[in-house]
Structures are given as structure tokens and as C-alpha cells.
Amino acid sequence: MDQCTIFKHNHDQRYPDLICEVSHEGLEVKSTIQIGKGGESHNGHSGWHTVICFDRTDAGIQFIHVMFAMLRGHQEPDADWKYVGSRVKEDTGSRRTETYNTTGIGTTKLRDGSAYLVPSKVNFSRWRQQRNGAVPRHSIYFKSLADS
């Protein structure tokens, strides 16, 4: 994204990953091979987040799902992140970095903000929705009166 958008790389190990040169808005970028999964982060901050789901193929990778959402940080009321913690490995004694996962509402917000999706790769029956308020018009879940 740094090379082809107005979002530029922030700094290594700093939140957010990218900063817009014009608005100075940040964008945190995460990727996963777990299609349908929400967000996972080491900080659970408020702000814009994108989660990019992909599949490995013989030719490289295939993008399956790209989601965007403005998420409320773990310290905010009605947070979109929940603290998962960290675990100590029994055999080495090392501790994994603390982790936050999106709540049901946070995950639904990300899915509402789907910018790219390969429907044949998604098991929609496993996607639960949890939200406050109506389905936004931009959501993949939105049904207009014309669709009824």
C-alpha cells in the first residue's frame, strides 16, 4: 500500500502501520490465512484497521477477503477489542506477546467493510453477526427493499 496509495509506512513496530499523507489518519494492517476471522492485534487500539485474508496456492497467494473498519480501542466504552492475554510455553518458559481479538461486533464491523471477497471460498453459515444498530448500506449483509 505504501507504494501505490497515499498511505505511507509509519515506522517499524509503531502503531499504526500506515499514515495518510493528506488526512494524517492511520491504518493498521493485518493479514491471516484464517478466512472469516476477525482482527487480532498486540495493542487493540482505536482507529482504522484492515484485515487481509489470503490462501496459499502453487502460484503464490490468492487474496480471498479484504475488510476495513474503524474500531473502538480496548479501553473505550463498547470496545471492539477484547483482551485474550498471553501464554507461557511450558517447555521453554517463553511468553507470547499479549493479544487482543475483535469482539463479535468488531468482527461484524470488519465484515460490513468488505472491499474484496471471493464468495466461493467462504463458509457464510459460520459467520455470525453481532451489531448495534441497523446494517449499514455499504455492508455485504445489506438488503435493499428492491431485494425483498
Mean pLDDT: 88
Q: What order do the SSEs take from the amino end to the carboxyl end, as H and E?
A: EEEEEEEEHE
Residue share in helix: under 10%
Terminal-residue CA separation = 38 Å
Taking all Cα atoms into account, the compactness measure Rg is 17 Å
Q: Which runs of at least 5 residues are low in confidence (pLDDT < 50)? A: none
**Most strands sheet:** 6 strands, mixed
Quick one: how many beta strands?
9
Strand order of the largest sheet: 1-2-3-5-6-9
What structural category characterises the helix and strand content?
mainly beta
Count of DSSP H/I helices: 1
Shape: globular
Taken as a percent bin, the fraction of beta residues is 25-35%
Overall number of domains: 1
Write the layout of secondary structure elements.
Layout: E1 7-9, E2 18-20, E3 26-32, E4 40-41, E5 47-57, E6 60-71, E7 81-85, E8 99-102, H1 104-112, E9 114-117
Parallel strand pairs: 3-5
Antiparallel strand pairs: 1-2, 2-3, 4-8, 5-6, 6-9, 7-8
